[in-house]
Design the sequence.
């Protein structure tokens, strides 16, 4: 599905009116961008199975919104707390996606910095506390990143060439956790600004290409595995895998 078709545009218009009434037009634009990013990430979990059926494989979605500032947290709670679950359900139903029985979206606002939101997915009987990343790390083998080693601690880790990506109004639409610094190494130019992400899902890490220019692949046991751009399932990672982002490379290890 092409995201932000008529169904999604209608949801966005409704959210914009909602936040403008609550907070005024000046605050609404930033919240609409955040709202869109959350819906896009939830929509990326939809799976297409036999005969083109679309299913959402999780019965519980926990969205955590973070800010260091109390006033901002209050605003986030007011804007998203009552409405986000309805908007997610409307989006999935409108695209004829089947949801599990007892499907629920929970919103938590917490103090913190870094990524403005995090989404954890689980099924009935599974605690969301089991979802954060199992002990793993990424080591930079080729190219120059902001750090030589990264420890995976969240359910999603974005990889790209800029720390932040902004839209035409200079609003942040994506933050990368692993950043191959622009101009710092000749290999870095082959890493797209929005290159790939690693997602923790049901005990496994999966690598997904986010439409990169030079491609993403996994080198494992002497063979190269291409990660198809836009494939929502991606490639399941194994300890010792080498992840190529263009010509830059990371090694994935589980402790």
Sequence:
């Amino acid at each position: 599905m092409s995201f932000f078709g008529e169904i999604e545009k209608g949801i966005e218009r409704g959210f914009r009116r909602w936040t403008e009434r609550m907070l005024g037009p000046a605050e609404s634009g930033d919240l609409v961008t955040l709202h869109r990013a959350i819906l896009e990430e939830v929509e990326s979990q939809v799976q297409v199975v036999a005969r083109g059926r679309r299913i959402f494989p999780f019965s519980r979605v926990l969205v955590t919104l973070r800010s260091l500032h109390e006033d901002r947290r209050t605003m986030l709670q007011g804007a998203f707390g009552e409405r986000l679950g309805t908007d997610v359900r409307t989006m999935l139903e409108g695209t004829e996606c089947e949801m599990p029985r007892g499907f629920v979206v929970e919103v938590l606002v917490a103090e913190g910095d870094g990524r403005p939101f995090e989404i954890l997915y689980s099924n009935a009987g599974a605690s969301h506390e089991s979802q954060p990343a199992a002990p793993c790390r990424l080591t930079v083998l080729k190219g120059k990143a902001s750090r030589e080693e990264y420890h995976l601690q969240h359910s999603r880790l974005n990889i790209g060439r800029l720390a932040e990506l902004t839209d035409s109004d200079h609003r942040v639409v994506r933050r990368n956790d692993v950043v191959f610094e622009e101009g710092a190494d000749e290999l870095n130019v082959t890493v797209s600004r929005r290159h790939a992400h690693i997602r923790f899902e049901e005990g496994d890490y999966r690598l997904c290409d986010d439409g990169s220019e030079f491609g993403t692949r996994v080198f494992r046991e002497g063979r190269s595995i291409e990660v198809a751009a836009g494939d929502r399932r991606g490639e399941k990672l194994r300890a010792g895998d080498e992840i190529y982002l263009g010509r830059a490379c990371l090694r994935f290890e589980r402790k």
Summary: The helical segments are 6-23, 25-43, 70-80, 84-94.
